[in-house]
Amino acid sequence: CGFAALIGRPNVGKSTLMNHLLKQKISITSRKPQTTRHRIVGINTTEAGQIVYLDTPGMHNSDKRALNRYLNRTADTTLLGVDVVVWLIDGLAFQDYDEVIFKKLEQAGLPVILAVNKVDRIKDKEQILAFFAEAQHRFPFKHLVPISALKNTNLEDLETAIFELLPEGGLIYP
Ligand code: GDP
Hints:
Rossmann fold, six-stranded mixed beta sheet, alpha/beta, binds guanosine-5'-diphosphate, 5 helices
């Protein structure tokens, strides 16, 4: 069990993904020290363990320069206390500030799952495979999981990948 940060630019599908992932929605009134930098967006308790999903405010800026400024200011603290980062990108097209986020994630040295969303929109199989190859080349993280948050496709694979990267142990929020 542990903390997963869900990051990605606006409109990439973060809320849609959370809505489908969360089996148990909760609201937190008291904060644990590890989470003071983050907003808890949901907690998923399953038989396999517990994932606490965090939002890292500011990480989703769509303005490249503002994002750069934000990340430079807070690079050391933004992801403190996080066990795994789920980075959502759009399977239809790369964005030029993807590169900015990639560099910061590399610096942070945390395990990252690259979740390629909206694959339901790509009809051509060759095109999908080419995109995955390019994504793996640009952002060589160990885990790449294609998903469709809207159609609920492959979300179990994503959860499995998250659990693999979380520390073992009991529940954080009983
Ligand atoms: P957020 O800003 O990152 O939280 O993005 P949202 O979850 O609000 O999604 C933005 C838009 O993309 C909405 O219109 C969603 O319906 C759409 N969307 C999200 N995930 C998918 C997906 O997997 N496939 C398709 N086709 N659309 C999606």
